[in-house]
Design goal:
By secondary structure, the chain is mainly α. It is 49% helix and 0% strand.
């Protein structure tokens, strides 16, 4: 969830979808990823958030919601040194080779 970057948890599209399904924004994002076949390993240290992260299988996003979320993609990584950066890929390759 990009550690909440770009105010993802206040995003109007995600908030409206979460209200529609009576779920938290994080649950909607996890469900969207899961429905797309993306393996998700959510992280939290808070018990209530861990339980919330697990509770994503009692609803399904329709195609319209799936498309609305997909349209939010800016094609820009929120992480410096992402795997799209050739220098990072080179560093990772060297690191792996030296293990």
């Amino acid at each position: 969830m990009a550690q909440g970057k770009n105010n993802i948890f206040q995003n109007e599209v995600l908030v409206s979808i979460s209200e529609k399904h009576q779920k938290a924004v994080g649950q909607v994002v996890l469900r969207w990823l899961t429905q797309r076949g993306v393996v998700v390993i959510p992280k939290s240290v808070r018990k209530e958030r861990i339980l919330e992260n697990i509770n994503i299988f009692d609803f399904e996003l329709g195609q319209e919601d799936m498309n609305r979320i997909a349209a939010l993609d800016t094609k820009v990584s929120l992480y410096p040194g992402s795997d799209r950066n050739p220098e990072t890929v080179k560093w990772l390759s060297n690191y792996k080779a030296n293990l």
